[in-house]
Amino acid sequence: MLTFAPVGVAGRRATAFDCLRFDCVDRYVALESHEDGKSPVVHEGVDCRELRPGTFHAIAVDVRDGGSQVTVAIDGARVLDAVRYEACASDSPVLAFGVSKTKLCWRAISLVPATGDVGRQMVPYEGDEPHLVEAVMRDMLCEDLGVTFDDIASLGPAKRLLNEAVTLPLLIPEYFTGIREPWKGVLLFGPPGTGKTLLARAVSSMNDVTFFGCSSATLTSKWRGEGEKLVRCLFAMARHYAPSILFFDEVDALVSRRGESGEHEASRRFKSELLTQMDGLRSEEDSSTSRVMVLAATNCPWDLDDALLRRLEKRIYIPLPSEESIRDMLAIHLKDIKCDDSVKLDNLARRMAGFSGADVKLCCRDASMMPLRRLAADKSPSEIQKLKEQLSSTSLTIDDFEMALANTKASVPADSVGHYESWESQFASTVR
Fold first, then answer.
1. Does pLDDT of 355 surpass 80?
2. Which of 65, 91, 258, 369 yields a CA-CA distance of 20 to 30 A from 283?
3. CATH number of domain containing 397
4. Which domain holds residue 220?
5. Dist. CA 136–CA 140, nearest whole Å
């Protein structure tokens, strides 16, 4: 093992020191204490499959409480999380870095006082084909979209499952091993406008999760073999930036049933490559692979290929909202809008039975425009500009909602709901 020579008081070599050991052959990280004349004491050791000879990694080390608590992150992923131990060099605590069985090479070292938690760093991915990496970074890698689970009414089962699949493994990774490994594939299905894409957007705002919004427009290409290469690049980047989520909206457009008449050879190759990459998430034991999840949404689950359904382990039905859920949606949409006492949310929710979440939002938006329509009628642009103060003090009335309800029709036919419920009874997962 190679280490920096730890230095004690007044430049003397320390006879006792604590060491982080990075083994790039057996691929693990260990926190050890060394003292002259004694065998090393291993306080904590974890496998780290990303460590390989000849690779560079961004390593962040946070040392607190006089050297008795250490957090280590490699490429933004924590491998040692707030590990407490009894430092052997209490007089002048020293933390040495070491690496075994390979050449040690540092690009840059910086020591700064700790001002907060060990943050997650985005180390750029360098692939074999830069134009594919650029396409994924430009069109698919999403930042925080500004939606949280608190912005979504009801859908408790889906929220719990996504929390179980994404958040909890980050908080207690040691629990999610073996048979408890996190879900690798989740399908959200149901009528249009029920909140499937909104749930995915809320997932993108979770801390320490990289979110890829995968569209068919980016993944398909007119060049032979380009689509398959892009899929491989996408999954490689997801593993690099793990923990990560790959979200496929309208996944039925990408992976419909194979073997149907009129299916193009290029489409079949693309589907096979996508299914192969998804299956790799299930079979490999790499720690980065185990932190990649595929999230898909569709309005037509019966059109999906059977092999895709097998890989999407959890299939969650997102139904039309109940009366109680519609009331919660109304409260969310109207929280910043003044309404007079004639507006009763319970009565409005009852009137909106059969509406999707998108229909409810559309109705609220239409009702909120009614005061402007009344006040701005037959007025010039200069007069309309002077209405700002009057508009801010005007409350919505029940008549505004009556007009909005007359203008808004349910977008989901009542007879189509039975089709979803039938498919749910055959294939859906129950989350309680």
1. yes
2. 258
3. 1.10.8.60
4. 130-320
5. 5
Tokens of 144: 């925080």
Report yes or no: 50 and 57 within 8 Å, Cβ to Cβ: yes
Q: List all residues 6 or more positions away from 383 whose beta carbon is below 8 Å from its beta carbon.
A: none
Cα gap 105→384, rounded to integer Å: 68
Arithmetic mean of pLDDT, 128-154: 79
SS3 426: helix
pLDDT above 90 for 291: no
Cα–Cα distances in angstroms (integers) from residue 224 to residues 221, 228, 233, 234, 380, in the given order: 8, 9, 16, 17, 58
pLDDT in tens, 234-282: 999 888 888 888 999 999 988 888 767 666 777 788 888 889 998 876 5
Written as one string, the DSSP assignment of 142-169 is E---S--GGGS-S-HHHHHHHIIIIIHH
- Does residue 241 share a domain with residue 137? yes
Same domain, 315 and 200: yes
- CATH number of domain containing 151: 3.40.50.300
Predicted TM-score of the model (pTM): 0.69
Q: Is 217 exposed, middle or buried (0-12, 13-18, 19+ CB in 10 A)?
A: exposed
Q: Are 132 and 233 in contact (CB under 8 A)?
A: yes
Which pLDDT value is given to residue 46?
84
Say if 428 falls within a structural domain: no
Indicate whether 43 and 92 sit together in one domain: yes
Is a pLDDT exceeding 70 seen at residue 68?
Answer: no
Question: Which whole-number Å values give the CA distances from 80 to 66, 111, 282, in the listed order?
Answer: 17, 19, 24
pLDDT at residue 181 greater than cutoff 70: yes
d(CA 216, CA 176): 32
Distance between CA atoms of residues 192 and 242, nearest Å: 30
Residue 95 in contact with residue 20, Cβ under 8 Å?
A: yes
Judge whether 136 lies within some domain: yes
The answer as to whether 427 is a domain residue is no
- pLDDT, position 8: 39
Pick from 320, 340, 361: which residue ends a domain?
A: 320
Are 162 and 310 members of one domain?
Answer: yes
Q: How many CB atoms lie within 10 A of CB 13?
A: 10
Inter-residue contact 253 to 219 (CB < 8 Å): no
In contact, 34 and 17? CB cutoff 8 Å: yes
Q: Say whether both 284 and 361 belong to one domain.
A: no
Same domain flag for 327 and 226: no
Output the six-digit token pair for 426: 């055959």
Name the domain count of the chain: 3
- Alpha-carbon torsion angle 269, 270, 273, 279, nearest 10: -120
> Based on the domain organization, do 201 and 96 belong to the same domain?
no
User: Do 199 and 235 share a structural domain?
Assistant: yes
